[in-house]
Specification:
homohexamer; mainly alpha; two-stranded parallel ribbon; 12 helices; 6 strands
């Protein structure tokens, strides 16, 4: 069960109203790397987890992320505090309000008109949060790696936001939130490696013929070697022929019943294209006379022996 | 530039038509852990990457994932080959067709009616693929970790699909695809650790007061210790008071101009709730007479001294 | 700040594994009327609210909804507990597993394959949760009404779920959750009516010519009168002429600059349709000879004087 | 059946081209509180409704909302009329066009480039309309409350848009649309209360132990009392212990078969974390030498007796 | 199988960094008419196609579209090259960076903060790409028409983008991409008409009573005739009566079992509205005293005989 | 302005309750090829259209599609009529209800539990309708082609639904709806070709070097020729070298300022990968001892001269 205490986990001191900045902050409220995504990610994993240690850790961190969601949402609310009443009380002339709301160089008009200045579960561009942001799949060797990566991404987005504001109070709170992502990443790393073995993920082993192969599928100037495709670590395969149909003829087949075969033949016949035709088309109907004439000429020319 | 060769990277030999199984396979065609997501993930990273080695590797693997998308999509097409013509040629009685299409115990009716049996960019439940599945953010220390995690997840989903079919040809091809995820994960790991340092991600250091703190936010029976919150590795903080407002009073504030303050006051006054009122409400209007009477009685009782 | 206690708000005692039922329960976990939507709805309102009473109430209820999210998610996890390991440990033959996962008559295959049996933030049909479910707009006279309605809807969905299971433990927990929606609705009703006036919502009054008009726009057999369009309460307007262009000529106009006018003329000319033409079309090109002949005949017939 | 008359329900007289304002107007065309959402909401309810009075009213209002959709869409088209041809006829230098399209301080570039200036089914930030905005669930005691709330929200958004423009014609038409939301709200209110009883919604009664309980789940400075949690109306429960596991031990359980139990044990063993380990992790591999040394030192210090 | 060559299909020479323009370009990278949509469209059709000629053509064009995706994505990456490092290296003061990122008059802040300047699979307004953009349904007479239309739309969007930039290198590459859409349209046209007959699409013929009818459903000033509704081509039906219930009484009915009938009656009774009531409502509870008095007066007046 | 008449455009006579069939019908109610998409498509085009003939036609057809939406929605409502009250009145035992709702072999449980049996704006798999289904872009040469294609697709989906039911009344109504798609397609075709020229779409001509080129990008066994790539119609280009970098060196470049260059260098240096390293990775940390040993051996073997 959750309980709430009205004191924030970290104090929020905003220097001045700034709806444009508020909007940027939404990135970590309702954006893909934001705190709602983080909280949902760990909370849903915790509910399904059976290992007592991981379950406890996941719920600890999920709860902290909810507390961070509160901090970042409070920053948004504070930054919008001044402008919120402006629109609802219609304190200024309409033209002035319009200029204010359209002049932040970002999508803050959405936040103001649609959400009344409250923190919205969208990213900074107004894209609605959706659960596709959460990649939990219920296997700890995969989910812990997903969590490590998610913390790394969130850390970077906080870093970018810090670089974008000189409001000391906002920077201070963002600094705390960013730091906690570093701490969480370390915690998930410890949890991953305290489960042994954790690679390859899951239970089924790979097919040893292909586990250590590197296919050099992008070729040309710019081909590089490194530890990720070195001969020490991988079997480096290059050249089209060696990479395709690595196991047989590279054809696709399915065994059909005779009923299925005859139905398929019927469908094929009904929808067959005629390679020998040269049909008039809608495009030609739609050309101007001039263009059609040109095209005709061009086609004649192409047929002429001298070409 | 891409080129295509008509031979598949891996041969597909399907044992029999099976639209229900085809639908499950969509999980790795148009699902969140599927091959389109993988290809888009690495391809978009490759375009923005400036490190020559990583750029080459990302494009190599993106191209391979496109080739895998072709393999899994071909499996879907083969499994649907028999039933596809059944619906379009209306070969059976309607009642029989209805039974067929509704009887696979999953959402294969969508694939048949809407997509005509072709491979659709949805997951196995019909959810449309969306770019929220892709978590690239343009920083290699984060993106490589995301890629490692993505490969781990894809490996698990293939493992689950393998466990669900006894069609030998399908199992064989799925085995190849699963194995390649293992190989890719290793390649991304090598690339991550050949960039040093890569932790913490990005450039800004964390605030050392909070980098190694573990907040024990979920309490009660079930609290566990482990390397992820051990005293060796972390400063373990427990108890509500120690966790909240770690830096000050935990209050939120914003400096408003006097104009903003007076507008806010106007708004507050206009929308104030009256804590001393006991208003009649819509719910009470909507109760049956009997229920309203009961409620009245209950309220009287609560007021009575004996309670 | 949030804290978590490992004891649930309500005890969950599930009678037996049942992944099909687990899937139905997702409706209130990650569905539009579910607990995540409820928690997010009240939490985001609380952050932006300035009235101390409403702010406190919204946070109280948001926190309780998070605790309900935990209860319903735990029900899902318990119902899937048995089947979860079946797939990951591949305990049965593949054919048997396939039958199990495809045989629940609903989308539980998604939950098993994609989410490994964990509670997913989707509805019971696999649709990803999205923030479009949340309709907070930052005005208390609107938001409280939205909350009242949301509680009513959630109550109904719980009622339907209760009607669908005979697992006594699940019914018991669902009954608690359903009841709390009733309690919350009453609380929001009290809060709405303790703010006076709260109708019409917002600050601007309506245009008195149209505030009490009822337009009878759907006509024919089945037209009914009632308090919602009675003469006592509303000015009942019927008949096409009286309902259209209630204020003028019903035309649309915009004052354009002369530059804009000439550009628009150029665009119009370039894309004009010729009403006097009878062009050959792609449809005609695509008809079979027989059909084209029929069509020709038909057209002749239509032109004939006798028609 | 629907019919259309070319005269608008309300005359639209736009003062001048203004694509930035056009974009704001999209909020009520393709936004969550807009007219398409309203029309779809009432229309789908009408189709399923069996009560003759409500069915008629829902269709009346749905039809009017379609007529409003036409009015607001026409406003958008008029505001874009001048700029639409500018882009398609490429009347100005490219640099000038770029400045024009990028200078409205909102997302009007999307409307221009992607939709050619036509009214798009997106909100003012470009978010695609989706049916998650519609919360009809097929129970009149819930749906009518949802409709009342929806009208309240739409009224507020119109009020905000009116406050943002000084184009007299646009304000006039918006005023009409806003007023009709007030009228509709009153109609739905009458319909709700003419169905008795309508509270609690649905058929199942609540559990009387919890129907009138208020859980004070958010605590600390700022706790308030009011009619929504007064002792007259509710049983006020506060303090963690009283709120959790209100019915038993707050534990979750499921009765598993012995097969399920042994499979679960196998899974647990395979994925167990080792609480006694202190594994090397990827984060440590990724640290710079300096940071790793510091960390080591710190850990030693923590172990020292003086701490 | 796909292979990749590091040389682009068309050379990209960008004149200068321009993140605002980069954002506009996303329209054809991750927008609905963009290259990812095109590639996915033809690729999924190719996989399911059985006609050898069409299958080959679809794969040829799909592969080219992937190569175009690389070209447009590279343009985005080049345009962002300069600004990308600015944010990650925090080279300027925060205030300056904020001005830069908020000053492009479009949503480029999303691209910078969230995606680090890399090409994102969103449109120019930040809307995530989703597979609903792809309308393949697995019937060639429909899919080829969809492809023709898709190429026409993509051509127009490229034309608009060309009109918006004076960067010669960007214009040059966009010109190539635009031209290829024209070429592809012609190819799909040829393929459509080489399948005969292709109209009406599919196998079932239409009902001849309604195949050539034109219903004039929008009436009033502005009614026009043209080849699309001329008497030569269509049977023109006008007037409400002639258009509704063209086949019977226009009623809806379903044969119910007697059990179903009695249940329906129970439901109807429980939720009946009372047309004769005039209930007090929530709206009235919420009015100010003044407004309620006015309303009362108004109602009395309406009842007075003189009205 | 719209008006509604209670008689349907086509009579609906449903033979018996059938919630499973109801769900399939949703494909044309709230699916991508359904009537809401059609109505929205033509309605939004009509609002922005300036050509009087097309504007009238678009509004005629939009209005008819709304009337079709009513017909198909009514079919859904009738098919669900019997089962709707079953759930809300809880007429049967829970186990029986559960069997009923889970036994239709498709997603009808969503419709019943979430939407109470009303027609929902989802496709037959429960995917929420979204405006990404609508591809109007405000250019008639493109939009009319899109409309032609949309009608073709809708015709096919109706054909498939007809093939799936033997309820005579449902088949009859579906037959009418299918036929009207044929009629509309013909109307849009006439409108397209009455605008001359209409190809290429828009105003800018293509680059004549590439307008008639066919790139043979998918090679290998299965390469076919036909009118879509014949020498008569197109310049057929094959072979990798001839297809890539058709205009120059195929490189990408951007002119950067010197500041940008030095920042980029800083970023590159900070995130450089070291191709000469062979770092220990997380994957290796995560392997079992046995696997790590094997890997080591394998690597030694690869280094041995005999290989």
């Amino acid at each position: 069960m959750f309980a709430h205490n009205k004191r924030l986990q970290y104090t929020v001191r905003v220097g001045a109203s700034n709806p444009g900045l508020a909007n940027l902050m939404l990135e970590q409220f309702g954006g893909p790397q934001g705190e709602l995504a983080a909280a949902c990610r760990y909370f849903t994993q915790a509910l399904a987890e059976d290992d007592p240690g991981r379950k406890d850790m996941l719920m600890d961190i999920a709860t902290e992320e909810l507390s961070h969601l509160e901090v970042i949402g409070t920053i948004v609310a504070m930054l919008n505090k001044g402008s919120k009443s402006r629109l609802s009380e219609a304190a200024e002339s309409e033209a002035e309000l319009y200029r204010t709301i359209s002049g932040h160089g970002n999508s803050s008009h959405v936040t103001q008109v649609l959400y009344g200045g409250g923190p919205a579960l969208t990213n900074s561009g107004g894209q609605l949060w959706n659960a596709g942001y959460i990649d939990s799949i219920g296997d700890p060797s995969a989910d812990l790696r997903s969590n490590i990566a998610a913390e790394a991404r969130a850390k970077i987005v906080y870093e970018r936001l810090i670089n974008l504001t000189d409001d000391a109070g906002v920077r201070d709170a963002l600094g705390f939130l960013m730091t906690r992502e570093i701490a969480h990443q370390q915690q998930f790393e410890k949890a991953l490696y305290s489960m042994t073995p954790n690679f390859p993920p899951g239970k089924l082993p790979g097919d040893s013929r292909f586990t250590n192969v590197y296919f050099n599928m992008s070729q040309g100037e710019g081909d590089k070697r490194g530890p990720w495709n070195s001969d020490e670590n991988f079997q480096f395969v290059t050249g089209g022929a060696a990479q395709q149909s690595v196991d047989g003829d590279g054809e696709a087949s399915v065994a059909l019943t005779s009923d299925e075969q005859s139905l398929l033949a019927r469908l094929a016949e009904r929808t067959a294209s005629d390679p020998a035709s040269d049909p008039m088309t809608g495009a030609e109907l739609g050309m101007s006379g001039e263009m059609a004439a040109e095209k005709e000429a061009e086609s004649l020319e192409r047929d002429s022996p001298a070409r």
